[in-house]
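S.,

Sequence below, as promised.
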Amino acid sequence: MKTLAQLPFRLPPPEGGRVDLLVIAGEHSGDEHAALAVRELRAKNPALRVCALGGPNLAAAGAQVLHDLTASSVVGFVEVLKHYSFFKALFEEMLRWIGAHRPRAVCFVDYPGFNLRLAAALRERGISVKGGGAVSLLYYISPQIWAWKRQRRFTMARDLDALAVIFPFEVECYADTELPVDFVGHPFLAPGYVAPVRHDPAGPVLLLPGSRKQAVARIFPVLLAAYRQYRDNGGDREAVVIYPSEEIRTVLLEAHPPADVRLRAVAEEGTDPVVGEPVAAAAVLTSSGTMSLHCALAGIPGAIAYRTNPFTYLLARWWVKLDYIGIANLLLNQPMYPEHIQGAARPEVLAAELRAAINDPERARHTRTQAERLRALLDQPAHFNVADWLARELG
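The prediction came back faster than expected:
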């Protein structure tokens, strides 16, 4: 699949000349979650034709992937600005493609900066149902409006036809709008889902720099330096680094990890992301993304480290008034994982966090207690899952 920089800005037509569902998932986690839904949906209806902007997991689930958007994922104002011309061209091409091929529905998966703008443009051009057209606009995995940008719910209600949320309390967040909202369960707690990590007090150290190239390039050298300090001060655990794609593996190797740092793919290219043995870990240093929630649910003690472009960070401090950046910390409204951001993410500080996570029984006990609270918060029954929701909306 081509990277965004190589995209000719003419996406291929749907195979067979028609498409029932277009899925747009811009990140590795969205690609994984959407793939599980598409696989189940196509098992119920093999004739369903699905196209996607997504990644290898959606391709393996049977979708025709028009472009691997996960390979182009960026975050932050400065990073987006650097790639503005590419995203603008892709945005216009998606409008053209949807207008030309008219899928019965578009399912946006998270990725709100791109997806919500596209939903608004489809309404303005008269393509979507809310704009007077025939294309239904669905959204799976809500933006975290309970944490910031709460006003988004009104533009979402204006542009979208249905929303499926993964946190049970999110339904109430949209109660003052006319947008139909269904809780479909959290994918990490779905029956049969095998988490990629588990807690083992005798296990190695886990280093998780994320899934976006720019973020990994900034964070991984800091995590690596912290691990080296931990070893230099008598630590005896080896380290494991989980990565989602060969592109990210290349970035990791550029940091020259030593022999006692093993790199492990979440899944082989094109295979189900939930198949395989979880990685055992005694402690973790993680970025603030999806994997941090996996670690929290598994009860692995550790800390969050995050660095972004300094200008992006200043803008975020100005625009976003949050006590935490980690999803588990936000949900619990408590620091399950201490957060070290920008200049505070120093190797000596993170090395001390590793030693405490491994050697302090009280730290481990507290993490287990918080993990139980987190699971209780998320593990609530849903009337149906996301595949059932999609089948209903497709009629």
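Residues 189 and 379 are 6 Å apart (CA to CA).

Coffee later?
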